[in-house]
Known about the structure:
With 303 residues, this protein is mainly alpha-helical. The protein has a single domain (2-297), classed as Na+/H+ antiporter like fold, CATH 1.20.1530.20. 82% of the residues lie in helices and 0% in strands. The chain is built from 15 helices and no strands. It has helices spanning 2-23, 29-52, 60-88, 92-99, 103-115, 120-145, 150-157, 160-174, 180-190, 193-205, 210-214, 217-241, 246-256, 262-271, 275-301. Helix 1 (2-23) runs antiparallel to helix 15 (275-301), helix 3 packs antiparallel against helix 4 (92-99) and helix 6 packs antiparallel against helix 8 (160-174).
Amino acid sequence: MGVILNQIALLFLLMGAGYGLKRIHMFDGETDKRYSAFIVNVTIPATILNAACQETELAPGDLAGIAGIAVLSFLLLPVLSWFASKLLRQDGVFTCMLVYSNLGFMGIPIIQSIYGKTYVIYVAVFMMIFNISLFSYGVSVLCHSGKRNLADLLKKLLNPGIISAVAALVLFAAKPPIPAVFKAFLDSVSSVTTPVAMMLIGSSLADIRLKEVFTDWSMYCLAALKLVIFPLILWGILEGLLSVPSEWAAIAVILTGLPVAGNVSMLCIQYGVGQQKAAKGMFVTTVASAATIPGLIYLLIGT
């Protein structure tokens, strides 16, 4: 419980810093756009590659199993999210917020606190599939929301995120020797991602009245679906229908029930689509997760 609250508190401190910087005019709309381009095109790809360069001791069978669960999750969630968005008459930004969770900043410390450091690799495998999905399906959904043409969409799909995600899978599978200085470079660049991304989300929140955040009924629907309903559906499928090992199922369900990924907000700023809506979704689901994540953990593993 302490790990969860610490991560949530840190997220809000970073968002608060960004909010304050916008209020005192050190950040503005142009700053948001430039830094989001830096995050999306430089530091997130570095983070993806950095995860693939870490030494692991995961057995091939376990790797295939957790990768299969990750693929299933990122096939199921877009379908569920599409139906929910249609039912609630929401757009592609809402759909992406339902699909993509904050795996790196919250998923890693939570899974490590429950299962130990050796299980962090499970999160890393999920993150690789996550990034392939985000920078292909996620980008296509956001671009569709922005009503871009097919040629522009195809151009957007060939982006640093998808290239680095595919390269990461190759590195992870082939395990070539990586120079220590290159690992240090990736680690240094990737460390920038979370603090700058959270500040930019706080900066986006400064453009709207906080009253609008808590009076937007769609945000409550988002929180209920993302943090409770979708994780329980996935749990039922993994344990009830497929009978996967309970430990693997619990990890997948916990990762699915995390707040909206900051990456979604960065892509919204980058493509000029729904950045305030994405910031609201990140804020509301992070607040609500202080209650839902401990409840989900207790339900899954009883601790």
